[in-house]
Amino acid sequence: MRKMRASGMAIFFMNENEAYPTPDRDAGASFCVWHDEEDRYWLDVHYQREWRRASPEPFSDFEEVFEAVKDYDYAIPMKR
Which end of the chain offers a freer environment for a tag, N or C, measured as fewer CB atoms within 10 Å? Predict the structure, then answer.
């Protein structure tokens, strides 16, 4: 697992075999990007002490993922 911090947000990059990380207590928004075997990217957000899906549809590349993180509206995300 790799972690990147941008604009106060933590972004964890993971594959399907890794477990969710525990974000730092004082961290701002935390996101996980999953890369699946079909070469798609899924985005999850840490919300009220649990990980939830930030988008119901996968993304095709990292550019779409970063745009989604940047434009995330912090509404209540759906449960997985």
Answer: C
